[in-house]
Amino acid sequence: MSNEQSIADAETPRExxxxxxxxxxxxxxxxxxxxxxxxxxxGDGTEAVSGVDLTxxxxxxxxxxxxxGAGKTTMIKVLAxxxxxxxxxxxxNGFDVRTEPRKVRESIGYMAQETSIDPELTAEENxxxxxxxxxxxxxxxxxxxxxxxxLVDLEAVADKRSEEFSGGMKKRLxxxxxxxxxxxxVFLDEPTTGLDPKARNRLWEYFQRINEQGTTIxxxxxxxxxxxxxxxxxxxxxxxxxxxxGSPADLKRQVGGDVLDIELGDGPGAQARAVTIAHEFDDxxxxxxxxxxxxxxxxxxxxxxxxxxxxxxxxxxxLIVTGFNVRAPTLDDVFLAITGERVDTDxxxxxxEEST
Amino acid sequence: MSTPTESxxxxxxxxxxxxxxxxxxxxxxxxxxxxxxxxPFVLVVSLAQPFIFLVLFTEVFGNVAGGAVSQGLPGxxxxxxxxxxxxxxxxxxxxxxxxxxxxxxxxxGMFEKVLVSPMNRTAVFVGKTLAEVFRIGLQIAIxxxxxxxxxxxxxxxxxxxxxxxxxxxxxxxxxxAFSNMLAVLTRDQESTIIGANLLQFPLLFxxxxxxxxxxxxxxIQLFARINPVTYGVDAARxxxxxxxVMTVLEVTAFGGALDTIVPAVAVLVGLGFMFGSGAVYLLSxxxxxxVR
Lengths: 356, 292
Description:
The structure holds 2 protein chains of 2 kinds. Chain A has helices spanning 4-8, 72-79, 101-106, 123-133, 138-151, 167-177, 197-212, 224-230, 248-253, 268-280, 303-316, 331-339, 346-355, and strands at 31-41, 47-57, 61-65, 87-92, 95-96, 108-111, 185-189, 216-221, 233-238, 241-246, 258-264, 288-291, 295-300, 321-327. Chain A is an alpha/beta fold. In chain A, the strands form 3 sheets. Chain A has a 6-stranded mixed β-sheet, with helices on both faces. Chain A has a 4-stranded antiparallel β-sheet with strand order 2-1-4-5. Chain A has a 4-stranded antiparallel β-sheet with strand order 12-13-11-14, with helices on one face. Chain B is elongated and about 75 Å long. Classes of the chains: A alpha/beta, B mainly alpha. The interface between A and B is large, with 74 and 42 residues.
């Protein structure tokens, strides 16, 4: 990254940064988040989170994936002390969210799913208010505000009221206000939802930059491409339970092989026949076959080696193959394998586009 | 993909000092004052309507109403009679913006942002309310100035003017609390504005604000007894005229204007506590992390 030092600052005492810092009172181990047996049930009986165990280490870029309503936001709100757990133990930066909520709040940055800035204040005033709210020492505020405006590229509009900003600018400003006190752990709840790809890429750069500077990041997203690009480790939540946990590569390996997408030329009847042929195809053990909009999609260990044979078999059966593509599985496929549903957001679409 | 940093610099120190209660109050007071200045609309609109009332009422009803006023309070012209009521109207109109500010904060996410910050939550609301109360005091001062220009007379002078501002601020507490309760319950800007504004006119007209109660029908006189506006207006008017103007409670223990001011202030303090505790209850429920 180009300007690491702009934020990494001369006077951060990195030299004496080995071992637990002053801010991390009472926790010897290097975990940012430690969750065991977390349950959260809403008043109407909805079990938003049921029995989650999870540990996130210091400095990790952790991604939390799941379809809408799976419990992502509920989880992040528990971690940010906005919701009290129904059962289980949750420690954030070594502090118990139930008994030491203020200590947790002091030591985290939180960026809500909805952009949260005061539209009547300028960019600079928004950051300054956050500096004051998080107790950034008086003498440091000017410098810190300038640093953050630089980090999120809003120097030029520092004195403009934020109600005039575009969605991407507002998100960047919101992100800056979550970082004022240099928190060791930052929560980002779907930070790029609704942004255009350019604005999204820019935010990704900022997140990577602060992570490289040692900040632990806990990110929720529906965009599999986002998780794939940014995160070292992922967990997938479904109906309030964690159903997969590992690096993006680990998770993709679980899909069971490569993916062969085949486009078929003639009518809908052709797809059903093609599915039957693919299922009966000898070279593919345990293949998963599904109908797609334009043809079929086959996931199998031998998809690369024996793919052409399947194409020949389809032709012999009188089907017209108009296109095909063999590719490594994307997180979209992982998601499909785990949750049984495709991600029907533009994020899912973006992931597909990239692979073709 | 970023590389794992086992030891890394995750342990770099945070840049913060401890929050203090007074500091947290000050931060929020500054923010809400800044917003009021940024949004002169709020300041002007909550002044404009009462000001229009002041001019129109004295011009249109001045002659007719003046007769009714002089029966009970000889030698007092209608402008002088009306100005304390307009001061209370300003307090009422301005108090509505407190709830609107809260709804806006809930809608634009600032409410939650403040909740995840380490600021003391009581200090957050104290700071916001102080900013509003400061604005109400300022607006009443402006109305009193305009009133004097239009010919009203504050018998008790500058001390009286400060006293009327104090009464207006004390009066505003119950309605500030009420508009915040509406804000938390509806979480909707329009409902809050409509709810609070709908109440304003009946409260003002069914009180001693615009005419002496003796000149009004019996049922209004009855309602005026339980109407907070009557107590705010009577206290402000007693200071303005330096006379015992209260007719809903007969108190003679203190003598002169104090026979109105003391019981009226006592009622307003009681109302402030009653509505205040309702608002505190709802606000702390809205801020709590308990699952519902």
